# Entry
Amino acid sequence: MHPANLSHPQQRAGLDFSLTSHLSRQNSKLKIKPSDSVTDYSAFDDASDADMIPFKNVSQRPPSPEKIVKLRHPNDLKKKSPGSRKCRMIFAIVFGVALLGIAAFLAVHFVLVNEPITIPVITPVTATLESMPNLKVSGRQIVFPNGTVFQGRGANMGSWFIMDSIFSGFTGVEEFDFFNITDTRFGQDTSRSLMNTYIDNAMTSTDYDLLRLMGFNFVRFPLHFRNFQDKDGNWINYTDRPSEIDFSRLDYAISNFTSRGLYVQLDFHIWYSRDILYEGISKNDVGLATNDPTLYAECVKWRGMAATFLRGLAEHVAGVPGILAIELANEPVPSYDNLLSQVLYDAVRSVDSERIIVRHFGIDRVAPSVYNWTNIVYGFHTYEGEQDFPSYQLNTLNKTAEAYDVPYYVSEIHFADPGDFSPAVQWTFSDFAANVDVSMFAIWTYKAVNMDEWALVNYDSSYTVDIINDSVEQIEATWKRMPSLDLATSMSSWGKSLIS
# Structure
């Protein structure tokens, strides 16, 4: 408290009493009596540093407001004891040594961070059900057919197929506005062609090798309904095989992942109507059919379209080696009586009775046995600095999953660049892997455009495009440069830290 605020007599008396009590304990060392006036500080010159310690905190022993001011004045501290000088010398030496240590650390860190990284070429080996068998749920674990536990350490493929403007480098637009804008500007055929140009160039064979070098054993693969359907939700078929859905780019990606020993978890990230009414596929509130029959009918249609998409996807990958799981929907809104989960679960199970299914854990939490769901994993997302990271997973999720006897999976997690959050929540990839009891987790994200520590690998700002104003030719020219990226020099410090 500042002396100017000590106007009340009891406040002043309290300070005088504090000083009296304190000086009584110190008078044998300082040779002054409690009643002496402390205007001559020569008595302190012979005191050791240890004797002076109690007097370093003014609030512990001010004699009076006036004496506080005098004691704190720089002119009164000119006389320095030998002990004080010795202390300063020791401090200077220690400080100097510390500076040298920091300089050495930074030098070594600079060398390590900037040391050239060689990405070994992995010879692709076609996956089979023997080399990459279907996994299954056993209690709170995911296991191989022989019972060996699968501990999933994965990376999200981010915006690769979903055209997320934030991570794909589209300037000046909302997160998932790519198709809305390009459909309007160029028509949906050209819009689809642009999407395919991005998909075809944003990953190379070296990317697949690098993912293994970073220690991952699976990828979470977000998908957009527009990857395989038109804007109205109609399947897009091969030109020469009009009755067969064109999954060619997905097949190519899956083959590249699995041939390098990476399991693939497919994620239905963007469904039809998501940008019309996000919660539309979930809405089946009591009374909605009566209060708003038009909206109710639309929600039923949208939910049915989502189920159709998942059924087609699940049927296509049924029996394909290396498919870890299918995620029903990314961050859906809760649905009354879990209707959405039931409808989407049934869609997958109608064509694949064995595949692991991931259900988002952030919505209505219920034991799978209530709805006779089998071979199911509960997924959850968390980002450092949110929800008391990471104790939320360690406590709440762990207890809930234990009560339900189901594995849980942190399907999106990001470890912030040091300094972004307080030390209490600064965890690293290895900390999480070693200490959090989850069956799998997948970091967000592997690759992005100009997102720094949000991605393990970054394209620089020259790869951003303006989809509102750039021509088709300009956009294509930018994306066709992507394969030339030097991955070894384009990794964030986070990415480099994963390579031992």
Q: What stands out?
A: The longest helix spans residues 82-114. The first strand starts at residue 136 and ends at 138. The chain has 16 helices and twelve strands. The radius of gyration is 32 Å.
